[in-house]
Amino acid sequence: MIIDIPENSDFSIHNIPFGMFSTKDGSPRAGVAIGDHILDLVAVHGLGAFDFEVSVLERNDLNDFIALGKKVTSKVRTDIQKWLQDDSSILAGKQNLFVRQSDAQMHMPICVGDYTDFYSSIEHATNVGKMFRDPENALLPNWKHIPVGYHGRASSIIPSGEPIYRPKGQTIPQDAKQPIFGPTQRLDFELEMGFVVGKNTEMGDAVSTNDAEDHIFGLVLFNDWSARDIQKWEYVPLGPFLAKNFASSISPWIVTLEALEPFKVEGPKQEPKVLPYLEYEGKKNYDINLEVGISPKNEKETTVCYSNFKYMYWNMAQQLAHHTVNGCNIHVGDMMASGTISGKEENSFGSMLELAWMGTKPIQINDGSERKFIQDGDTVTMRGYAQKGDIRVGFGEVSTKVLPAK
Q1: Which listed residue (37, 107, 124, 322) is catalytic?
Q2: CA distance linking residue 221 with residue 380, whole number of Å
Q3: Is residue 124 among the annotated active site residues?
Q4: Which of 135, 309, 383, 388 is deepest in the core (most CB within 10 A)?
Q5: Residue 275 and residue 146: Cα distance in Å, rounded?
Q6: Is the four-CA dihedral 119, 122, 124, 125 of positive or negative sign?
Q7: pTM score of the predicted model
Q8: Within this chain, do residues 219 and 250 fall inside the same structural domain, yes or no?
């Protein structure tokens, strides 16, 4: 191996995720994560390794690189895997091609043109329905027939490490007749995965479930921040607005679908039978272990959630097929999020709303405090990895600190 890779690293030879990084002596550029290092793709291009223009690696995002298509991007990934394992390859003896991750700053990996958030975990939807509607009929009538989604705000998607400010908005106090304005008192995380569109379509075109994977470049961890009290007041009749558009945080490395191929699994059985355009063949869910930790200011982290992406009722192929079935066009760099990922066990619920059950079951934190929702000074960190035997492919983390409202 050209470079040492720590045991159980998220960024093994099986992974090779893509991202944008910079160092003190250089502007943002494309790289891949390998162990504790980043392989500088611009520097590798300088060795004559690739047959495309270097400019696509020197932009502020990966959009133009992704737009080259999987025939190109997948070859870059597999070539790097071969070179890293060949002591006589073009990478051999060239330590200047590698940058320590600790010496680099990560940036948004893509320019997000449009963002759609789905609502695809049946456990999450059931929990929310029990709390806010009817414990006996928690799911709305359409939930098992369509992958429910809404269009979110792309401009406020930010990379790991960038803090957020507690949002303000209208809320309605209990038993009050008039709303009040101020900072949310119920700031929440939502544990999600996001996928990056890797291929354009034209208006009027639809992407089938069979072709969906050709249009998905890869995945990131996704924290869809939510202000629950603002949401409760505003969501009827048109759904969340200010409760969601203030921030969403993503992990900086995009893990390709090819790297996740070994971790495909069967999804939950869908009853009643879906309409033909939502039917699919093969395994479309992914076995990805997920966890969430909360770190109060200057205190150690407490893990509050262990979940898994395999629980999703609606898979990514169905989400993309439904999104485009009416002819909606998609573009390279568009982001689509899974919706909160919850499992059947209480410690697998993917939000504080569920974990603390609307504040009735506070979560104990290691420093002796408790949490019903996220407090100022807290840092929320999400991690994810897939493992099968000796093959490990991870996402790193998305970590975000909450600052007081401006």
Answers
A1: 124
A2: 13
A3: yes
A4: 309
A5: 9
A6: positive
A7: 0.98
A8: yes
Q: Phi/psi class of residue 350: alpha, beta or left (left: φ > 0; alpha: ψ in -120 to 50)? A: alpha
Residue 404 per-residue DSSP state? P
Q: For residues 297 and 60, what is the distance between their CA atoms, to the nearest angstrom? A: 32
Question: Would 8 be classed as within a structural domain?
Answer: no
Query: Strands 164-165 and 105-107: what pairing?
Result: unpaired
What's the domain range around 59?
Answer: 18-107
Confirm if 129 and 218 have CB atoms less than 8 A apart.
Answer: no
Torsion of CA 319, 321, 322, 327, to 10 degrees: 140
> Could you read off the pLDDT of 214-225 as tens digits, one per residue?
999 999 999 999
Single-letter amino acid, residue 196: V
Residue 190 to residue 173: CA distance in whole angstroms? 23
Same-domain status, 122 and 219:
yes
36 shares its domain with 135: no
pLDDT, tens digit, 9 for 90 and up, residues 266-294: 999 999 999 999 999 999 999 999 999 99
Domain assignment present for residue 270? The answer is yes
